[in-house]
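Hi team,

Below is the intake form for D-arabinono-1,4-lactone oxidase from Meira miltonrushii. Please confirm the fields before the structure is written into the shared record.

FORM ID: S-0412
PROTEIN: D-arabinono-1,4-lactone oxidase
ORGANISM: Meira miltonrushii
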Amino acid sequence: MSNTKSMTTSNVQLARCEPTIAINRTPSNKLHEIVEPVLISQKPKIRNWGGTFTSTPACLFQPKTVLQCCAIIELARRMGNIECRALGRGHSPGDLPFTQGWLLQMDNLSGLVAIDTSVPTATVLAGTYVSDMHGMLENAAVPLGMPNLGSISEQTIGGLISTATHGTGYSFPVISAAVESMRIICALDEAEGGTQVISCSRKQNADLFNATLCGLGATGLLVEVTIKVDHWFKLKQISEECKFEDLIGPETSTPSIATYWSADQMDEHTLPMLQSRSKRAALKGIQKAKELIGVNEDSVDANDGLAIKRPMSLGKLLAHKPHLVPGCPASRLPKYHTKDPSSIYPIDSVNSEIEKDELDEETRVAQSRLETLGQSSQHVRIAWVPHAGMCTVMRMNKTLEPIQAPGVFSRVYGRVVGYHFLQLLIFMSRYRPSMLGNVNRFAYWLTHPSRPSDPSESSVPAKPIAADANQKAITEDPSQFANGTFDPTRLGSSSSLNRDPEPLNPTNPRSVLVDAAPRVFNFDCLFQQYTNEWAIPLSCLGSTLRAMRDWLKEEEEISKRGGGEQVHFPVEIRFVDADGIWLSPCHGRKTVYIGIVQYRPYDLPIKYRSLFAKFEVLMRHFGGRPHWAKAHTCGPTELARLYPNLSDFLALRKSKDPDGIFLNPYVRRHLLGDLRAEASPRIFKSRL
Ligand SMILES: Cc1cc2nc3c(=O)[nH]c(=O)nc-3n(C[C@H](O)[C@H](O)[C@H](O)COP(=O)(O)OP(=O)(O)OC[C@H]3O[C@@H](n4cnc5c(N)ncnc54)[C@H](O)[C@@H]3O)c2cc1C
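The structure came back. Fields below:
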């Protein structure tokens, strides 16, 4: 796909026009005429960015106008309710954007519709790449920018919103929360007027609005989005290398849990999709665990012959007997229920105080240190390298300082060593898994500074970008800076925006980057990869990371004897604020995302299934919710426990799409529990 795909202003205005006559009254031959020019191919092979799924939809369309989109959906209805699915840029690591029906590749419906500098907001067509939006916003009469971003800007705005894509920031919600209004094509009942474009916002069709803010492409086809933006700004990122134990404390094998598991509990907690297999495995595992731990008759509960009660490090238990790790206790399940669908962000009464009393001292200290760290800057990201026992803490704040970006040498070094050489090493470790620990340690050493950087040595002024000239007006009056911030009341005063965070330890190696915000928010995600990412409650962060460290340490021990799980680096840890979006993984609770990757050197498969399965067990234990865009194994029963508003979402979805035009195998499998062959990820030739 090309890098830029925006239309000229007049074409955009034409493209966004709605059909002049009701589309459900247009004869089919006329609809065929409208659709034909944008039918690109039949049974093409489509692949996601990670190369982890391929699919062969019956037809691929590339609509350029709202009229063409409406005509495709209406034809699909008339031809027997053929499933229709929007494809953004295929950057979802799972099979969420795939269908065997009709695929609508949306990136030709792209371009800037309008900018309102007073709020400020930007209105764009839904297939616009976020990377193109940066240029559009910078070139506005008053230079503007996105208030927050994830690791990349390659997505379409429609795809980004549909999965509640997130960046990092204690007081920054998922990016969907910044959406002001949308236009969406719904496939309504004939009695309600059939296929039509519906506008929605907090004030108009608020339930459709809320559902579509993380709608997984299942509420309809997004054609236009108005989103709150910010005045153009630079970010200063200070990266600090520190020992991971300085953040989460020394190893003490806590948290530990009593290994207690009965057949009844198994029934209650096991994912229905995997129930029979897991239950059998668990019963066998319990028997084995009795032998392993050396249970005698006294430690077997008289009322429940299967019960074993003995404290054991949660991480170690996960390494050896993942099926003995309990699911999420009821006390940890989310309670927040969005009563008013227009209540998106900020929301009231977020309870993040649970469980602290139950924590051991080490974990309590770790939790409070991590919470303080999360609040020490506007955006805090932690990249942890488990094999090296090190992490990079990246803290970003708005700044008025001049640009300070990596010099040519650093960039070339980063490309040659941080990309090509690393890929070669990971490729070699495919054949000698035992070398992966050393590869990770070596790669960390090669790519991270071991001493504080001297800005005059390592940096050169970067080429100024278009908005830099206009920035002068802003820098002369810093108060303007705060005037346009996304949510000034939550960000604090303009003076606090520019203050550098205190170093965690003055002797830690540090490096500094100052640049236009997108260049600091985004970073090189290297090559293709399997990914797994979960959103856990912030209140469980200390416990989760401590258990995860124990687990990965134990796996490394096991790997010395052959076997064991080996995680690539980095493990990414990011903070996100609570919101009221029905299906947002941050719904109702302050959240931390924890993500792991397994790179696929030279596009080759690599071992990852058992690692991800154990990771999921740990995330589930702490009440985690999976990132929707990434492959996971949650079914509707579990999701209903994790999302108190799931039934609202499903009811709204059904009312706006009674014939199931916007369903696909992913949605049917995970949200509706449909496990027929055609809902299996294997039809997409996944490597899962
Ligand atoms: C290298 C990399 C880095 C990433 N970093 C992050 C990150 O930092 N944070 C994060 O949260 N995620 C991240 N992701 C995930 C990514 O942001 C999401 O998968 C996003 O949805 C991809 O956008 P897309 O345009 O490629 O959409 P696709 O993957 O093509 O589609 C995603 C979903 O959106 C739907 N959709 C797309 N367009 C429309 C439309 N117009 N109307 C209705 N539905 C639509 C699709 O049907 C599908 O259900 C990353 C992914 C990659 C590959």
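SUMMARY LINE: The domain at 234-250+335-639 is CATH 3.40.462 (Vanillyl-alcohol Oxidase; Chain A, domain 3).

Thanks, M.
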